């Protein structure tokens, strides 16, 4: 909750009219249009404190790390302002761009001028490093200038360009600063000149460029950027970048039957394809998107995490979901949010909101510590105590991705269409939504995600058509509005006309999930979930090894108020048995009586794990 | 079973007195000494037909592939008899050496002259490729001569040398041909000259050299070979080959707490350390071996397979044993047999015989098809039907390793010491064992591994002290000898004095194994095992998907006679339920009633899987 003095600190920059992350206001093939990041003001104690930590702790700390690790110095060096060698990994420029994007949306949302200050000086360093022809990549400068555009499969030039374009758009829309935007557009023009139709054929080795170019088209109205994004998508499957499933270059996208390869590449690519579809309406792309999305559900963890293999950070076979050896990169869960958000906007199908919410609250959010200073790259679903969030990584894609997601999170809450306002996410908040030529104030009064009761207050001249998301995880949903009461159908949007207020009640019992037996890794196990939150059992807070815990799937478990690192949460409590594993000589024995000790257990939300002392953790509990 | 005409074909070469694989006749620190491969004549219908297939089908077919793939041509080219480039992988010479070793022991055992003929012409090609200074590696010839000994971590020169030495010893002992032996010894001398004490320090990147040099010491009595092997072992952990756990070079062997790294490298190295211990009695080595062996048991599959990670073909964490994604390389299971055989010889501890038998009958034997013409490199414990044995691999270490194991398999059956004769493995056979200066004929009449009753007939001048292995898997063991009856203790050797005959009865119920809950991958599951054989359920022979099968751990299952590809086997039959998985939308649902269909299932021995039509297979069955 914000104090009054904090509230007074937060002003919205007056000159910015809109700060869209995805601006689909002119897109033809979308079911609902996204709102801008400034429309929603979160007032809850789940997200709002995380955003405050983002602005006050995380963003400044990352800039400090950028300086320490040479990421800013790389730009100075490329601009001729510093000497020495390029430092770090080939795609390190992208971290700076992603940070700028996060700072921009954070500024638009919070109005904190120090964010504007931080961004401006970095933007100056970036644009000074641009070549006369528009090229901008600090790795390929000086003696490496001759290596430009030599190996798009591996060299990440188009990847860095994509993030530059996204940062340019963000700083223009959210800060009103066109310096970076103009620079990024010049680079985009160079790319279109070099790799446009009838030019040299290439494909981004690591997608993101596709999304960025479509957004640049949306920002400028210039069709060459959309055409270039479409071309990058159409050229896949011709072996231009090696022809491997890892690169999603083995078959054309329209012919892909399964989603494969590097998880982040795959889901960024799908997001870009969705963006192209939104603008072109090419049905063959939507058909591929739907098919590949269905396939991905067989390859998605209960946390919304994706990418089960350490080898090549890749998506595995259907139902291949190892727990302790889960890779489930934070970036892949974030990409899962991105893709599902776009699918939701395009189709209006509630299932995409479910998948977006799941990844957001679990597999993505686990990527950052409660104090905003350390990060998971890999997100296992079971661990012996060795996995801990790190303050940084040489390959820092995840830390600089989670800040973007948090920064534009408010924009995910609603969508609008001619049919009305779509409530996609729940959380205590006050929003001002432009819709059908008028402005509607929508307030959510709720303790979501800890409680499923949501009161929605509307302040509008005439009744507003609200489409309330009834999550697929709900067993039932009671809606009361304007003196009437109706049952919502889980997995759909419930449409109601609201003049003043409506109430939605989503009961949140502790659910016990079991896995399809095809998921070998989850056999004979139960996962606990409450509302959108997946729970895990940590050694911290329990006096037994959670890997030895067996619970009965027929038992009922209760949610109780708790506190974790001074954050209010709900814990799940129940009875179980701790198996005595000492009796196993090695790892197997004849079936028969196994000694058990009755125990009470406490489970905490998965996103919050590894914020206390190290120890074993597990999501899928042995069912006895 | 051999027909009489086949029996007449099999003669033992008269001039070969002994064909030891491991000659510990002079080793000081061994509990029991190995016997030679000619001592045992298998007469069963489990192993004897596999050996016949080896001689008649597998060995000739591999030679044909060697010619097709340039493996022999590489030697001709190095000898100046052919032109062109080196073909294949850097360590391809080793395949030829391993094949020669297999042919040599097969010849000694079978007396089939065509084997001698095949070997002789290949030996001529090999020795002609040797340089004047003793160097012999066809990759590093011509323009690559300058690259010799530049990168022992990766270049496999000492690895190929090790296999050459083993082949040289084998052809000398088993065929009486010293041509290859002399060549290999010259190469060994060169290695000792280059890398001996006070010379340039190196360590074999891929172990095997250590075992080979100790055996060369045993063959020649020349201590420099033993010293060189010891030096290679002592130099580990100093970073000479990179210092990584993958290479087992991160700490000195005596300080290793866990067995890590590339599974085959690790277990070959341990076998070499055991060999050095057997000759030197260095207690610090035995202590390391024991400690690392204990650790390996937490990393070993129920099949005796080892090496759970695709990444780097490596051993994973304790209890990390994925089933569908098991790597469990055939070579690693074979290395597991090799290491355990040596540990058994050194210590006499029955637990090593258990581990050896387990890997032999399951994880190693699964590596070759019943027809002897195709091979598994990777041995999953669950599969959707895609894994099939292949006729060859570019990296052909497994096909050329399984032939060695089969060729010298008879030598694993017994050990001898001053205390008597140790019966390590069971199978219908007639053996002539030299022991304490006399020759004892031992006959096993049994249907092992299908039945646990073994009648042992002894033909000796005076009573023989027999040490009968009572396997750790046995629940009980009744021994009758000379009118007396006693209970054997599982996990020990039972000593009895036998003049004429003894009987051992090992009941073989179908055991239901459960896993330590720390093995996440096997939770809530049951594996079926009978005697030394692990069973699996294949789709072939069942009318449901075995991944959907749930069985009750309290049910009893029966073993019945069956036939698979005209091989007599015992199948395991029982009742279970096939879960209806269609009801899962994706891969998870709320716990509750799951629809089941009662089914009868048939399980087959794991070694025999994938010999029928492709389809899903699983070892760890879901327990309901």
Biggest interchain interface, per-side counts = A-B, 53 and 53 residues
Could you tell me how far the N terminus lies from the C terminus of chain A, measured between alpha carbons in angstroms? Answer: 42 Å
Backbone CA Rg of chain A: 24 Å
Overall average residue pLDDT of chain A: 94
Instruction: Tell me about the largest β-sheet of chain A.
Output: 7 strands, antiparallel
Strand content of chain A: 15-25%
Number of helical regions of chain A: 14
| Oligomeric state | homodimer
Largest beta sheet: strand ordering of chain A: 2-6-7-8-13-10-11
Helical content band of chain A: 25-40%
Could you please describe the fold and organization of this structure?
2 copies of one chain form a homodimer. Chain A is an alpha+beta fold and 624 residues long. Among the domains of chain A are: 417-448 and 453-505, Maltose phosphorylase, domain 3 (Sandwich); 511-623, no CATH class. In chain A, 33% of the residues lie in helices and 20% in strands. Chain A has 14 helices and 23 strands. Chain A has helices at 4-9, 48-68, 71-78, 92-110, 113-128, 157-175, 179-195, 209-220, 223-234, 263-280, 283-297, 330-347, 350-364, 397-408, and strands spanning 33-34, 40-42, 382-383, 414-417, 420-423, 429-435, 438-446, 453-459, 464-470, 478-481, 484-487, 492-498, 501-505, 511-515, 525-530, 533-538, 549-551, 558-564, 567-579, 588-590, 596-605, 617-618, 621-623. Chain A has a 7-stranded antiparallel sheet with strand order 2-6-7-8-13-10-11, with no helix packed on it. In chain A, β7 (438-446) and β8 form a beta hairpin. The two termini of chain A are 42 Å apart. Residues 5-16 of chain A have low confidence and may be disordered. At the A-B interface, β14, β15 and β20 of A face β14, β15, β20 and β23 of B. β14 (511-515) of chain A pairs antiparallel with β20 (588-590) of chain B.
């Amino acid at each position: 909750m914000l104090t009054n003095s904090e509230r007074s600190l937060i002003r919205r920059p007056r000159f910015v009219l809109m700060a869209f992350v995805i601006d689909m206001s002119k897109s033809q093939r979308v079911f609902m249009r996204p709102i801008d990041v400034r429309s929603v003001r979160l007032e809850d104690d789940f997200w709002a404190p995380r955003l405050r930590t983002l602005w006050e702790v995380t963003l400044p700390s990352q800039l400090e790390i950028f300086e320490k690790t040479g990421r800013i110095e790389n730009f100075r060096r490329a601009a001729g302002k510093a000497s020495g060698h390029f430092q770090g990994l080939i795609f390190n420029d992208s971290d700076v761009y992603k940070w700028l994007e996060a700072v921009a949306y954070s500024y638009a949302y919070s109005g904190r001028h120090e964010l504007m200050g931080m961004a401006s000086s970095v933007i100056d360093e970036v644009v000074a490093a641009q070549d006369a022809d528009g090229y901008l990549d600090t790795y390929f400068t000086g003696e490496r200038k001759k290596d430009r555009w030599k190996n798009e499969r591996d060299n990440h030039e188009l990847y860095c360009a994509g993030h530059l374009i996204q940062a340019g758009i963000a700083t223009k829309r959210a800060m009103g600063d066109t310096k970076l935007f103009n620079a990024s557009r010049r680079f985009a023009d160079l790319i279109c000149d070099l790799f446009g139709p009838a030019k040299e054929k290439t494909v981004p080795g690591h997608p993101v460029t596709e999304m960025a170019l479509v957004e640049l088209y949306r920002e400028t109205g210039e069709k060459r950027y959309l055409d270039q994004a479409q071309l990058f998508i159409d050229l896949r499957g011709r072996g231009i970048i090696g022809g491997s499933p890892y690169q999603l270059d083995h078959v054309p996208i329209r012919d892909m039957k399964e989603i494969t390869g590097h998880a982040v590449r795959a889901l960024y690519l799908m997001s870009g394809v969705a963006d192209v579809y939104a603008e072109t309406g090419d049905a063959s792309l939507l058909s591929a998107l739907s098919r590949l999305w269905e396939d991905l559900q067989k390859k998605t963890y209960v946390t919304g995490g994706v990418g089960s293999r350490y080898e090549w950070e890749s998506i595995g076979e259907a139902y291949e979901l190892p727990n302790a050896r889960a890779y489930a990169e934070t970036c892949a869960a974030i990409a899962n949010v991105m893709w599902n958000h776009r699918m939701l906007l395009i189709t209006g199908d509630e299932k995409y909101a479910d998948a977006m919410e799941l990844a957001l609250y679990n597999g993505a959010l686990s990527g950052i510590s409660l104090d905003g200073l350390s990060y998971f790259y890999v997100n296992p679903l079971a661990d012996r105590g060795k996995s801990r969030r790190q303050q940084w990584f040489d390959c820092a894609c995840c830390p600089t991705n989670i800040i973007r997601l948090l920064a534009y999170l408010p924009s995910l809450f609603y969508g609008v269409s001619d049919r009305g306002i779509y409530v996609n996410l729940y959380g205590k908040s006050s929003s001002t939504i432009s819709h059908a030529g008028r402005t509607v104030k929508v307030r959510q009064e709720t303790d979501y995600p800890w409680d499923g009761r949501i009161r929605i207050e509307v302040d509008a001249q005439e009744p507003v058509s609200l489409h309330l998301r009834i999550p697929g995880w709900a067993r039932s949903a009671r809606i009361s509005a304007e003196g009437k009461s109706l049952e919502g159908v889980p997995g759909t949007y419930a449409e109601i006309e609201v003049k003043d207020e409506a109430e939605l009640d989503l009961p949140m019992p502790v659910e016990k999930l079991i896995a399809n037996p095809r998921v070998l890794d989850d056999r004979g196990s139960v996962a606990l979930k409450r509302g959108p939150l997946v729970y895990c059992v940590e050694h911290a807070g329990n006096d037994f090894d959670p890997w030895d815990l067996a619970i009965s799937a027929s038992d009922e478990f209760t949610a109780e108020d708790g506190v974790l690192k001074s954050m209010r949460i709900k814990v799940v409590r129940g009875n179980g048995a701790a198996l005595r594993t000492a009796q196993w000589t090695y790892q197997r024995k004849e079936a028969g009586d196994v000694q058990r000790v009755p125990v009470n257990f406490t489970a905490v939300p998965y996103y919050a794990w590894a914020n206390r002392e190290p120890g074993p953790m597990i999501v899928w509990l042995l069912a006895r």
